[in-house]
Amino acid sequence: MRRLHFLVGVALAVAPIVFLAGCRDRGSEAEPAPASPSVAADSPSPVGGGTPSTDSNPAATSTPRPLQFETGTTRGTIRHDGLERSYRLYVPTQAGEGSNLALVVALHGGLGSGDQLAETSRFEDLAEAEGFVIAFPDGVDRTWNAGACCGGAARTDIDDVGFLAALIEHLAATLPVNRERVFITGHSNGAMMTFRFACQRSEMVAAAAPVAGSLEIPVCTPATGVDLLTIHGDSDRNHPIEGGEGTRSISGVSYVSMEESMRRWTTGFACTSVPSTVVEGALTTTTWSGCAGGTTASLVVIAGADHPWPGGKMPARTTSLQGTPSQELDATRAVWEFFESR
Questions:
Q1: 30 in a structural domain
Q2: Number of domains the chain is built from
Q3: Which domain holds residue 319?
Q4: Which of 12, 122, 163, 295 could be a cystine partner for 225, CB 3.0 to 4.6 Å?
Q5: CA angle, corner 136, sides to 253 and 149, nearest 5?
């Protein structure tokens, strides 16, 4: 399995497996979404129950309190736009009061969940080994409102941009994380949401890494520069790289092509260079430099890769829906290495 060598200062990153790009009102073939945790809003609790570990109102007094948090895997909720929104969280055991850790937000695909993404990607193992915090939020109806897609979240115009911004603010206020090292990644519908958030709340993230998803808003209007690494298979039957509706897609959406996605991104981020392309085995990496704030944008195309998270471990029952994960690239490690290099 390949590990990307960073081209023109760009490194590949890691992210978790996620399920199908979108869904209408169809039943899910994926793992069921986790039940809403029975803890107070804004209060993570250890998986399996226990006393909430985070101060539910860290700004309640004028005297700063020491941070209180659990290491390992916990779950929590916050309220946003009248809805209780849930998330899974992993804090590495080396985290302490004086830590200054990176925060990664990882978005599942349509029909997926935060738990499913965490478990199939093994992202938490890497977070423990490398020392970063990772959050896996849950979408409404197991979907994200990424613009033109997907499912219930898009149909009812759920404010997922606002939810993710509120979640990042909450985690930054209650955990020992570095606000300058907040990153976002996602797969499929979660990749589309990653694109949207980076375009519309660019001031909140340093880099973005969408995998197997497109930019489904017509105009990207960032306030600041964001480094981009996006990964797509050239044989994706759920979300064709050339755009349109895939032969395996159940969303009913005609997707934007990756060529058009990169045009929208590089226009929005005012990239000035002629793109350079490097081919290494099955990987073709095209990089634009001279983007806003000195950032870069890279598209990695994997020859022969279908829709699943590259290098991921996928339940056999889902391969009929997405195909078999490509082993040409360990996308999880690639995404993290990209983030780490920022």
A1: no
A2: 1
A3: 45-51+67-340
A4: 295
A5: 10
Tens of pLDDT, residue by residue over 279-320, are: 999 999 999 999 999 999 999 999 999 999 999 887 766 776
- pLDDT of 87 reads 99
Exposure string for 89-114, b = 16+ CB within 10 A, e = fewer: bbbbeebeeebebbbbbbbbbbbbbb
Which among 96, 49, 105 is positioned nearest to 71, based on CA atoms? 96
Reading across the β-sheet that carries 101-107, which strands appear in turn?
Answer: 45-46, 72-80, 83-91, 133-137, 101-107, 177-187, 207-211, 227-233, 295-302, 283-291, 276-280
Contacts of 320 (CB under 8 A, 6+ apart): none
Residue 24 lies in a domain: no
Residue 101 is encoded by which pair of tokens?
Answer: 């850790």
Phi, psi for 133 (deg, rounded to 5): -95, 140
Closest CA to 309 of 323, 293, 297, 298: 323
Burial class of residue 46 in the structure, from the number of CB atoms within 10 Å of its CB (0-12 exposed, 13-18 middle, 19+ buried): middle
* Rounded Cα distance, 116 and 220, in Å: 30
Q: Which of 165, 148, 150, 162 is nearest to 112 (CA)?
A: 150
In a domain, 230, yes or no: yes
274: CB partners within 8 A, 6+ apart: none
- Could you tell me which residues come within 8 angstroms of residue 170 by beta carbon, excluding any fewer than 6 positions away? 42, 78
Please give the share of the chain, as a percent, with pLDDT higher than 90: 72
CATH number at residue 314: 3.40.50.1820
